[in-house]
Amino acid sequence: MRLWRYRWWLVTACLALLVVILLCWRPSEKKYVHKKFRLRSDEIKPLAMGQGSCFASDMITVDGKKVGYMYREPPDNEFDSGWRFLAGSEPNAYMDDAKNFGIYDVNTIANYDPQIIEFLSAPIGSAFARRLPANVFMPVHFQPSD
Prior knowledge:
Blueprint lengths: L1 H23 L28 E5 H4 L7 E4 L7 E7 L5 H4 L5 E5 H7 L14 E5 L4 E4 L7
Parallel strand pairs: 1-3
Antiparallel strand pairs: 1-4, 2-3, 2-5, 5-6
């Protein structure tokens, strides 16, 4: 009888410890961050199909800001267009965190800001910045990374 009481106490203590661990444990970094995109998938229209993939800032796809700066570098793979899209107001700490960016079809970003479409055929090494108050893209100097 006495042995049973010790086993019961041990099982109860282990279960209590497990509950505490599960309730208090917080992983240091989530492997997947859920993003609430400004546009739903049913709102994406075929505006710039067949352009390949690109990188874009969450300030565009999540916060809904317009593209403020875009540049084209050599593609990383056969699917990559080389286009990189930024709102233009991202601070350095934001830029250093890969969770603030995503890989998208260029058509998706064109739906967020259709003004980019006319520049998508520009060659590698091209860069454009939105100039206010005219709200037009102007070519700017860009040195592609090696």
